[in-house]
Please model this.
Amino acid sequence: MLELKNITKKFGSRTILNKLNLTIPDQEILAIVGPSGAGKTTLLRCLSGLEKVDSGQFLWNNQEFDPTEPSKDNQITGVVFQSYELFHNLTIIDNITLAPKLVLKEDNSKALQTAKQLLHYLDLTGKEELYPYQLSGGQKQRVAIARALAMKPQILCYDEPTSALDPALRTKVGEIPKSVKSFYNSKTIIR
Amino acid sequence: MNYIISIMPSLLSGAKMTLILFLWTLIISIPLGIIVSLGLISHFKIIRAILKFYIWIMRGTPLLLQLIFIFYGLPIIDIIFQRYNAALFAFILNYTAYFAEIFRGGFQSVPIGQYESAHVLQLTKWQALQHIIIPQVSKIVIPSIGNEVINLVKDTSLVYVIGLGELLRAGNVATARDVTLVPLVLVGIIYLLMTGIASFILKKIEHSYSKWK
Model:
């Protein structure tokens, strides 16, 4: 269970998040909607440790944690960025296996095996040796999901999951969080 | 033809000095340039100010003047260099400044999202640099580095001013002694060969980065 208590985030004199409280039970998919500028991305950036909050607490199963100082034994958040941000210089398979190998110290064969399962699950088999520029938007997005999931996060944060996609892909990608949930027991946050 | 063969040894030994200076300058300045560029984009104001000042001096004055200053000027304050060391020191200082500016531009043109995704995947700063950022920066900077590399081949001719025998000086000596332009034509050909080989290698390196965009 994830709890946010009194989270406040300011940029200069502008208060973006003001004493935000939020509880998300396990296995829940939460969609955060709001007008642009409401602070949806800021919330995800704080939760994933890209921004430091000015005050407030993050609790995971009643244990306080600091998203900006992640511990490698227990990766709490994984992020799929709005623009995916795959590593341009690495093949698809290397994009997915890099962090498990370097951070989780998985050996090559195990990391490869997990990555291939994820790729198969997300309908990307055969794309292993391609580079990101060779994929379509929807494919890149699924690689970004696979890359985040390979780190076995407890929560998957998903920024604007359908904004960059055409209507047909939108429906397809909309299904992914649900199926990902059944694959991994991760809790999913979408904004 | 006999004449050409007779002056080749002195030209080649000059070319050897040119090559040695060239290689050592590159080997030392490129890594130093990367380090200085990291300082230029760091959060430490004082470091940034010092490095900016250094780059301003190095890019704002002629390399020839820097050479003269290091070899003839520094002994006044009891810093004495051998001719070769003075030349190498001046080239490294000068080229590090140029390389640092090129790498700074390179680091800043890698999208911020690449740093952020490395961060959320919990890569350390060093791992992110090594696996993601430096390869991407390299691809961006290779054409500009290539320009500087070619300039460096030709800039080595400046060391004549502190009395080091390099290629151009060897050619000059032979021209003055034998009253013929042949040595200088040969010098030109040798420079062309060296820059040609450098361009070829650079093109190969550039090509090896072309499989991703």
